[in-house]
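Newbie here. two chains, one complex. Structure please?
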Amino acid sequence: MTSIEFRKDLFADERDDTLKEIGKPTIRQDILGHVTGRTPFYDDHQFDGLLHMRAVRSPHHHAEIRRIDISAAEKMPGVRRVVTAKDVPNNLNTLLSLINFGRDDEPLCAHDKVRYKGETVAWVIADTERQARDACAAVRVDYSVLPHVLDVEEALKPDAPVINHIYPNNTFDYHDRYDHQKLRFGDVNAGFARADHIVEAEYQMSPIEQAPIETCGAIAAPETNDRFVCYTNTQALFFSLGTTAKLLNIASSRLHFIGGTAGGGFGGKVDSIVEPTAVLGAILTGRPVRFAWDRAEEMQVGAPRGGERWRIKDGVMRDGRIVAREFSGFFDSGAYMRLSPYAIIKATGHIPGPYTIPNVASNVYCCVTNRTPATAMRGFGITAVDFAIECHMDRVAEVVGMDPIELRILNAYRDGDMKAHRRAAKNTALIECCQVVADKANWPLSAEARAQSSLRGGGGERAAIPETATDTEGRIGERRAGRVASTAPAGGTGKIPAGTASKGVSGVPVQNPDMQIDADRIGHRMGAAPTPGPTPARAPAPPPRAPAAPTPPASYQPPPAPPASYQPPPQPVAPPAAAPPAQTGPYTPAEPFSRGTKRPGTSPFTSGFRRR
Amino acid sequence: MTIHKGRGFACINYPIGMNLGGDPAQALVHSTPDGKFMVALSAIDLGQGMKSVTRQIAAETIGVPVEDVYVDTADSDTGPHDMGSFASRGTHRVGNAVIRASAEARKQMMEAAAEELEVNAADLDTDGKGNIHVKGAPSRSITVAETAIAAQFKQGRTLAGRGIFLIPPSEANPETGEQTPVTCFAHAALVVEVEVDDETGDVEVTAINSAYEVGRALNPKLVEQQLIGGAWMGVSHALYETTEPYYPARDHGPEDFNTYLMPGPGQIVPHHIAVLERPAEDAPFGGKGPGEMCANPVLPAVANAVYNAVGVRCDRLPITPEKVLRGIRANGGARPKGRA
C-alpha cells in the first residue's frame, strides 16, 4: 500500500506548471518489450560457434604466484585456448585514467601476485561453459602465501603488509601531498572549546552487493571489417569501450559496443572487466566469445559497495546549535583503487551534511586492503556518510533534549549559507521536506519550527567564510614511517584568512546560440537567469505564456526576458592565415582513424587535466 | 516477549552529477522525412527510465507530441559520447544535452515553417500537437510533418541539432577541500516506523512517510517507481544485506539469493510519499535525479527507529537480530524511548 502526492503548492512561484510533455506520466517507449520478455539482453546474441570463457581465480587473500601450469588444462576436451597475463597487451589500468585521475594499479589478469581472494590468474576458452569450468579446475597455480590485511585501520599501520607497490603506503596519495583528503573550514578545536556538549561516535557501513537481476557479462565477436563488436550490459558504454581499447592496446575505432536496456546496474556495471576480457577472447581465438559472471562471482568477485568507517565528533550548544563537527573517514577500497579515491572527494564535498556549521574538519582515507575491490553503488560516496551523520544527529538531539526534527530544522542549511567546501548554498529545500514529512507522519512540531523556511534566514553572517586553521599532518609516507599516529584532523598550525575562496565552476555555455532553449520555454524561474557567455539572439521579449487549462498556479511569474541583443564575439583583426595548399589526389589519412589518443597506456578519452 | 514500536527520522541532501565535473554528455537529434524526431545517444538505460525522460525532454523542447519522438541509444557507432549512467547524472547531464540538441532542431524547424508560411520565424509557435502556427492566429498554421517534408525535399534543409553539456573539470584543494562538487542538490526527509521483538531481536519496518524534493518530477510515474524502489533498497541495506557478514573478515560470504538476504514482495513497506519540486537553475526543466538519493535517508531512519523502540544504538550495518538482541541484553532489557 503506497500513496504519493505532489505538493504543487510549494515553490509554485518558481515553476511553470503548464508544460506540455514534462510532468506527464508517459509510459516507457519500450515497456511492452520488457513486460513480454522480448527486450534483448546481451546474452541473447548467441552467435554460431560461440565460445565460452571462464576465469581461474585466486583462493588466497594475498600470495605470490610462483608458477602457472596450463598444460593439463590445454589438453582438456573442448578447450580452445588457455589465456594468461602475458596475453593482455597492456595489463595495467585504473578506471579513472579516463579522466586522468589516479595511477594505473590494476591488472586485468594477475601475474606477479594475487591481492584478493577471487582475483583472476588465468582464463580458459572452450566450446561449452561446462568444458571451460572443468579446464579452469585443471589449471595448476603454485602460490606462496603472503601475510594479508583486511581491516582499513590495520592497513594504515607501519607494520602492515604492502599490498601493491604502486601505492606503497596502502593509501591513495592525494594531490601528491597527503595520504588523505582534508577538509578545513573554520577552527573545530575552538568550536569544541566553547561547546556545551561534545558528542562522539563511530559508524560502520557494510559491504553490499548491487545485485542486478542480470549479472555482468559480454559477448564479443570479430566482424568482417577488422573490428570487434561487443554486446554488453555496461552502465557506461564509452567508459567500457575506452578501457577495453587501453587494456588491449587497439584503436578504439576497431571496437563497436552495443549496450543493453534492462537488467539493472545500481553501480555494479561500471568496472569494465567483462568487456575487455570478452574482446580479448575474440581477438585470441578469432571466434565469438562469451564472458559472464555467475551469481557467485557477481556477489564475491564483482565489486561491492565498499565498507566505510566514519567517526564523528560534534561540539553542540545547549540550545541545539552545532558549532563544530569533525570527521575521520576510512573507505575500504579493497586491493585496487577503481573509483573509491574519487568517491572520497565527493564525500568530502558533502560534509558536514545539509547543515550550516561554522567549524568543520575532516580527514578521509582511501585504504588498500586484501579484499575484492569496491566500486560504485547507488549513493556512492554519500550513503555511508549520510548514515553516520543522521544517526549522529539523533544522538545530538538526545544529548540536548530536543526533538530530532526540530534539531535538523534549527541547523538546516538555507539559501545563501556558506557550505564547508566554500560555495554558497542555493535552491535548498531541506526545511520544507522536514515540515512536510512531519505533517504526514503526525509528528508534532513547534510553531517556531513550522515557521522556518529555506528561503529566509540564510546568508548574512551565515554566508561568511571564516578564518581557517590548517595543518600539514599526514604527508605521504609519514604514517608508514611511524611519524604520525592519529588519523583525526590535527590541531591547526597554520591560518588561512577569512573569506578565502576561489571562483566556482559552472556549465559550459552553448557553443552556438541556436542550441539555447528560449528562456520562456525553460519552465522555471531560476533557469531564466542570464547564463555566463553568449546569450541567444532573440526577438523582443516574448509575451507571457498564455494560461492553459487547467489554470496554472497564479503566483508563477514568467521569467524576465534575457538581454535582447546578442553580442557576437569580437572578430579577429589579423587576416586569416594563408590557405592550405590545394589537396592533390584523394585524401588518405596518415594513420587509421581513431576516436582518441593511441599511445599505449594512455586513455583514449582524456578530459580535463592530470589529477592524482 | 514484547513487540516494541518505534519511530525514527532522517533527512539528507544529495549532489547531482559527477563530482567536480568533467563528465560530458552529448546528444544528436534529427527529423525523419515526415517530421518524427530521432534522438541519438550513447547513454545507458538499464531500467531507470533515462530513455523515457530524455524523450519527454526532447518533445517538450522541440514542441512536438512525445509520440513523435524516439530515443535510440547504447550503440557506440551511432550515439555520440556520454560518460555513463552513474552519479545521478543521466537526467541532469544527458537531459541538458538533449535540450540543446532539441533547441537547435526546433530552430531549424521554425525557420523551415516560416519559409512555408511566409512569416518571420519569431512570430511562430508550436502547439505541442504536431502543428506550427502564427502566434495569435492559430488558423495560419502548418503541420510539423508538412514542414519536415518541405524542409528536406524542397528547401534542402535538415531539421537537426547537436547538443553537449559539460561542467568543466575542477579540483579539490589539498589543504581545505574547497571544491565545486556539483551544481545542484536534491533533498529528502523521512519518518520510519518499526516494530522490534525483544525476544528475537527481529526488526520489522511497518510504515514509511517521506518527503522528497526532486527539482521537478519530469515523469511522475518514473519518480514514484524510483522512490518506492529506493526505499525498499534502503530497508534492505539497513536490515538485511551484506556480502561480508563478519566484516572485515571475509568468511561466510553469500554467493546466492538464499544466503544474501533481501526483503521479499510480502515485506514491501507501506510508503506514503510527498514530492516537492523546487526547480534547479541548471537542470533540465529544473529536474534533479531522484535515483540515488532516495535510498539514503532510510538507513539512518531505521537505525534511529530501532533506538527509539528498544534503546539500542546499531551503528554497524546491517541491523541484524543478533546485534539488536545483544544490545538489548547489554542494556539489561529493552529501553523504549517513547516517541512512537
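Moderator note: The CA atoms of residues 82 and 254 of chain B lie 35 Å apart. The first strand of chain B starts at residue 3 and ends at 15. Thread marked as resolved.
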